[in-house]
Amino acid sequence: MFESTEALRQESDKLRRRVTQLPPDARRAYYADEAKLIKDPDTYAVLNYFFVFGLHHFYLGKFFTGLICLILYIVGMLTFLVGGWIIILLLALFDLPQLFFSQRIVHKHNNKIARRVVERYEN
Amino acid sequence: MRDTKTSRWQSVTDQPVFQWSAIGLTVIISLAVLLWQLESTLIPAAVDHIIEEVPPEFFDEIGEDMVSDLISSGFTESTLTSKQQAEVHAVFDGLRNELQLDARHTLHLYHWATDANAFALPGAQIVVTDELVHRLGMGDQLKAVLLHELGHTTFQHVEASMLRASLIGLGSVLLIGDISYLSLAAASVSTTVLERTFSREQEIEADTYAARYFLARDEDPEALVSALENLSAEVESGEHAWLSTHPSNEERVRLIRGAYSRGKDGGEYGVEI
Question: What are the angstrom distances between the C-alpha of B80 and each of B42, B77, B85, B116?
Fold first, then answer.
């Protein structure tokens, strides 16, 4: 489900090498973009602490996953005593493991962003 | 075409401004739903369940402790004559017997500055101040106030308010992880009781209880209205008073009179005979 730290580190190294091969202006622009788009695992973890709200999904730009979590949360809360608690429990079971893997999830996301940005400047 | 659309959408969702706006909006919506649901459904359901499970002796003990602590809160021994005290107790005992309430319902008379006050404590303890007896006399108005307080004790409103305050405190601790809030929650329990922060529904339920007594005997519940009006002057002065609760005096009077005018069919006030 989650890639190993080693695999993610290797991918980061590869991307770094690609960045170093960019022309100086493109490299500067890359770093400026990266600084804006890169995500912090601690912030992700804090937002995940309020797990049933799906805030951490929005933080990584996963708008539809966040929206689905929010809708399910609202439905679950409004029907809590008549079975809605099951929805909340399932949401928690879906979201909670992500708290314990926040470093890897954010690392993977940052690699994805870095790849997208580097590809833009390579082209 | 679709790829262009996806990529455009992705460039929007990648923007931190968009992401933080979505987070902010979600927090507002989620907390609003959570608080509304807690207030309207979850806390009342939890309170009802806990009250059913907790043995009455637990609340009796808290109530007895609170009664003995009243002296340190500015209350002194009643200055009513023995005859007056006996009369008030006779009215109370008469109501308790008539309503077939158990002996746990106990009346305590105290002197408290010049405040006319009556309130319920956990474990079906009711406290009435001397000034209230002086102001209302020994007739139906006193009876109406005692009935209102018996409504609070019968429906365990004080216990429910205490548990509600405790649950809110506990919930806050779980949410924000601040353990110091527990002591505040514990303090708020006694404050809740002394300030009688009953909800609108609880006050109406207690008024209903009193009105129902009069209506069941084909009597006008006007005594309750008179008692409310008699004591309303103190509310205006901003002192601790029997009426310093929601709903407003006018609303309570309207509901009581509404119940009476509807006769024995009940209605908005839910009076059933």
Answer: 45, 9, 6, 13
